[in-house]
Amino acid sequence: MKLTLDLASESKQEWIDAVMADFDSFLQDHADCERKASAMAMSFVAKYPDRKEIIPELIETGIEELEHFQMVYKIMEERGINLSHSIGEDPYIKALLKLCHSGRNERFMDRLLIASLVETRGAERFKMVADAQTDPEMAKFYKMLWTSEAKHGHIYVKMALNYFDNDTVYERLAWWVEKEAEILDQLKIRSALH
């Protein structure tokens, strides 16, 4: 059983250049993403309360993402950066969700696999942010986030395997990996996680 996820494309140098050129905006978006990641984990609990096998891990993941938000917010406070007034729509997530199946079970699997992809892409990008930092504390912080996001990518694949057979999960995951790369390639480069 393979839980790790290989992305079909790498983020471009232009992306990390944009992030480092406007790091304050990146921090605002990063904070928003952590709030949304926490809410996403808890939305699985709310929508699928019958999926008892994964509820403890979803709660744990939701709490961990909220703790990440707290850490990012602390950095923002130290830098005098305010949270965004409202959380804007994420074009990356919106494009992925558009491709979801509509049936209850199929959509459940798709949402788990999307979560896996989003966390894995986040890990890749947090590593890039860590490597680009000149501040050792910020580099350490983003390295910690990189390892945490990679773990979350594995968790969501494992959750899907509780309910669907290996072939079904991995065939759909391979399809999602290709679609995610296409979507990422079409996105406008901005100082944001996606």
Quick check: average pLDDT? 94
The radius of gyration is 16 Å
| Beta-strand segment tally | 0
N→C terminal distance: 29 Å
Description:
Helices cover 74% and strands 0% of the residues. It starts with 12 loop residues before the first helix and ends in an 8-residue tail after the last helix. Helix 5 (104-132) packs across helix 7 (166-186). The model has no long low-confidence stretch (mean pLDDT 94). The chain has 194 residues and is mainly α. It contains seven helices and no strands. It has one domain (16-81, 89-186): Ferritin (Up-down Bundle).
Task: Record keyword descriptors for this entry.
194 residues; Ferritin; single chain
What's the short story on this structure?
The chain has 194 residues and is an all-alpha fold. The chain has 7 helices and no strands. The two termini are 29 Å apart.
Helix and strand layout, with pairings?
Elements: H1 13-21, H2 23-47, H3 55-79, H4 91-98, H5 104-132, H6 136-161, H7 166-186
